[in-house]
Structures are given as C-alpha cells and as structure tokens.
Amino acid sequence: MKQYKNVGLAGTFDRLHEGHKLFLDLAAHFGQFVHVGVVTSSYLDNAFKKYRQIIQSYQDRRKGVQNHLSLRKTKNYISDIDTLGKDRELANEANLSALVVSQETCRGAIAINRLRATHGKSKLTVIVTPRVVRKDGVLVSSTRLRMERAKKSNSRE
Question: CATH number, domain at 17?
Fold first, then answer.
C-alpha cells in the first residue's frame, strides 16, 4: 500500500539521468498517483539555466518522464510549467498529500506550504531526494551534463 494518495514533483528533466530517475521513483514509491510538472520551452525562455540553448525539447523531456513512469506502472498526470510560480500554483490547487523535492528545490516546498497555509489548506509532507553521485565522485546534474556536452562540442571545432 502506498503511503500517500497524490504526490507531486516538478522539474526540467533535461536528459533524464539517474538523479531524475530516483526523483521519479521516489514519487512512484510513495504515491498512488504522481502529478509531475515539466518546465516548458517558453518557461526556459525567461529563466536562468546554464547552457539552456542545448536543453532538450519540451516534447523529448516530457516523453522521457512519461516513459520512465510507464516502466514503473505508475498512474500519473503531467502538467506544463510555463511560467515562474506555476509550480507553486499547481501544488496549491492540486489535491496533493506530499511533494518530492531535491535538496536544491527544498525552499520551493517551504514556499508552497506557506501558500497553502494562507489558503487554509493543510501542509504537504516534503520528501527530499538524496543527491546522486557518479563513480568518480561528481554530482549527477543536467547542468553538468550540458556543460560536458558543450565542452566536447567546442573541442571538436
């Protein structure tokens, strides 16, 4: 039996890697239903992301999330995060019981719980994913993967 009925999480999910998979797997482990917000290309146009010009297309990122959750046989719904603050708005409006966040996005969960409190809603349980580290001790991150890709591309020129 799953611990929570509805679990939410959000992210860019660029080049779905082991950290993303753990993130999604934790949501699937704890929730009967997983609500995922995926950042759209229009959001990225107005956000600071290093090497954003080589971030995968929204459709590819969304498909990666969907495929991974399908492998887990997890009931899910994917929402577009197209503007700054939309993740908080969705988390406030959705019938969630818990949020899965990374250590980097934990502050966002605090803000969501504050917003819910102002609307008379109960706080969400916050589940923080551990960081994933490669065998060489380097933190797995999409930014690092994009940086390595850009360096390889530049060295070929």
Answer: 3.40.50.620
Distance CA 19, CA 72 (A): 16
Assign 135 to helix, strand or coil. Answer: coil
Q: What are the tokens at 88?
A: 């908080």
| Tokens 């509805």, residue located | 6
Q: 4: which 2 tokens? A: 């929570």
Does the global pTM surpass 0.90? no
Domain membership of residue 139 as a residue range? 4-156
CB 3 within 8 A of CB 100: no
Q: How many Å apart are CA 149 and CA 130, to the nearest integer?
A: 25
pLDDT of 116-145, one tens digit each? Answer: 999 899 999 999 999 888 888 888 887 787
Give which of 148, 149, 146 is closest to 14, Cα–Cα: 146
Please state the domain count of the chain.
1
